[in-house]
Amino acid sequence: MIKLYELTAHELLEKLRRNELTQEEIVSGLNKRIEEVDSKVKAYVRVGELSSSDGLPIAIKDNICIQGQPTTCASKILENFRPPYDATVIQKLREAGFAIYGQTNMDEFAFGSSCENSALFPTRNPWNLECVPGGSSGGSAAAVAAGEAIWALGSDTGGSIRQPAAFCGVVGLKPTYGRVSRYGLIAFASSLDQIGPITKDVEDATMLFAAIAGYDPHDSTSVNRPLPDYSASLGKDIKGIRIGVPKEYFSLSKGAQLEGIDDEVKRSVEEAIAQLRNLGAKVKEVSLPYSQYAVPVYYIVATAEASSNLARFDGVQYGLRAKDAQNLIEMYKKTRERGFGYEAKRRIILGTYVLSHGYYEAYYVRAQKVRSLIANDFANAFKECDCIVTPTSPTPAFRIGEKTQDPLAMYLSDIYTISVNLTGIPAISIPCGLSKAGLPVGLQIIAKAFNEEMLFRMAHAYEQNTSWHKQKPHL
Ligand code: GLN
C-alpha cells in the first residue's frame, strides 16, 4: 500500500493529474500524519490551512512574513507580531497556486544549528527523537522528513537549510545570493541570508526553486538575470564534469585538516564521490587554503549584521513591549531583556563589540578582508573544476543537549557550509548514506554563482543511481 505522506510533490501532482487523488485527500492525509507524529517531532509552531488555495500545501519557516499571520522567528520578542504584508516568496507561491499550510520551528532568529534555541520548544529528529534535527531550519527539515510536509521553505545564513536537510535525510538548497528575494525574510545577516527549498528529492527542489527565484525590485540585492529552465537540468548525464574535492576538508596532515570529521561521514562521502566517478565525472583535488578562517570570519560578520538588524526590536514597533517601565530607556531595556533568548543576547553583544570604536578595524574590517580571500579560494578552485563536493556537516545529528553548553562546538557544525554563504555561491545538500546508528549523512555540492543548474544536474544524476533519498524514518 502506498503511504501518502511519503510521496514527493511531483508524484502527488502526477496523481492529481490522473484523477487518482484529490486535493482534499492530500490535505486530510497531511492533517492525519501531523496528528499522528507531530506530538513527538514538534516540527510546527502553527499549523492549519492558512490559505484557501487548492494547490499543494507547503510549510514555511517562521521567519518569512505571511500577511496577517503571526510570524515570530520562534522568539518571544515577536510574539503577537503580524506582518502587514507577504514576503515576496509567499506572494510568488500564492501566484503559483501553492497553499500556505503551516509555519515551522527554528532557532530563535535563525541563530543556531540544532533548533534548541527556539523560545518555544526544541524540534526532534524524526530518525531518532533523542537527536536534534539540525538548525536553524530544523522544523522545516523535520516536517519534510517525517511526512508532515510535502515540501518547505527554509533560510540559510551559514548552513541553516543544508545542515538540517543533511541531519534529516532530505534535500536542501541554498541559492546564489541575489537569486531569491529576501523581501519579507526577517533579517539575520543581510549579506548572507537566502531563502531556499527543503524537499524530499531533487526534482521537487527544482520545481520549488523555480517558483520562488527571480528578480524583485523590493530587494536591492536581488539580481536581474533571466531564469533558465531548471527542469532541463534533470536527467542529463554527468560525463566529463570535473568535480573538485578540497584537500583541506579531507587531508589527514595536521594543521591542514578542518577539525572533527566523523569517520562514517567521511566514508559515506568518499563512496558518493566514487559513485559520481562511476557515472563519468572526473575527480580532482583542489585547494581552499583559507577554509580554516571561515568560522571565525562568519561569527564576526554575521554577529555584526545581526546586532544591527536586531536593534529595531525595542518594544516600539514590533511584538513584545514591557509595560512596567518608568521611561523610554527602561522600556527598551526591559523589552530586550525579556524578549531575547540567551543566544540572541550573546550574538548582539558579540556583534556590538566587533563594530565598536577601537575594535571595528581590528575585527570587522579584517574579517571582511579575509572574506574576500575565502571568495578568491573558490574562484581559483573553479578554474579547475565545475563543482565542488564536500560533506554537508562533519557529523550526523547529535544528541539533544550535547552541545548547548559549548557554543564553539555548536558553531563548528557549520564548518563546511559557512564559506558558501561568505562567497555568495549556491550549494545543495542531498542524502548520501546512513550511519551505523541509522542517522542520515548529507553530501554537499557547490557550484559557481548562478549555476544552480549544475547542482540539479549532479544531484539528480546521483539520486537516480542511489536510493538514499528513498530511506524513511520509522516513527
Ligand atoms: N548555525 C549557523 C549560526 O548559528 C548558521 C545559521 C543560519 O544559517 N541561519 O549562525
How many domains, as an integer? Answer: 2
Distance, first to last CA: 17 Å
CATH homology superfamily name of the largest domain: Amidase signature (AS) domain
Largest sheet: 11 strands, mixed
| Distinct ligand kinds | glutamine
Spatial order of the strands forming the largest sheet:
1-3-2-4-6-5-10-11-9-7-8
Residue runs with pLDDT of under 50 for 5 or more positions: 252-256
CATH first level of the largest domain: Alpha Beta
CATH fold call of the largest domain: Amidase signature (AS) enzymes
Separate helix tally:
15
Order of helices and strands: HHEEHEHEHEEHEHHEHHHHEHHEEH
Short description:
With 475 residues, the protein is α/β, with parallel strands linked by helices. It has 15 helices and eleven strands.
Record keyword descriptors for this entry.
binds glutamine; about 475 residues; alpha/beta; Amidase signature (AS) enzymes; 11-stranded mixed sheet; 15 helices; 2 domains
